[in-house]
Design brief:
The structure is a single chain. The protein is an all-alpha fold and about 70 residues long. It is built from three helices and no strands. It has one domain. It starts with 8 loop residues before the first helix and ends with a helix.
């Protein structure tokens, strides 16, 4: 069972890259196939999908933070 733990953006990116190396395709391609029902729903596929969802939902926050750091 997966235990919740804090993860920063760099760790999240590293985890997605590990899945890409392991399965041989990009996270975007994985997610397309996953959502089409081609890959099943075992624990590892669910984790990859969840990590990608987290990545997508935090993207606007990261972009906003970067804009705030740039001097006017």
């Amino acid at each position: 069972m997966f235990k919740p733990q804090p993860v920063n953006f760099f760790e999240l990116t590293r985890m997605l890259q590990e899945f890409e190396r392991k399965y041989g395709y990009s996270t975007i391609e994985f997610y397309r196939r996953f959502m089409a029902g081609e890959l099943g729903d075992d624990e590892e596929m669910m984790l990859w999908a969840g990590l990608y969802h987290l990545y997508l939902t935090t993207e606007p926050i990261r972009q906003f933070a970067c804009k705030e750091l740039v001097p006017a």
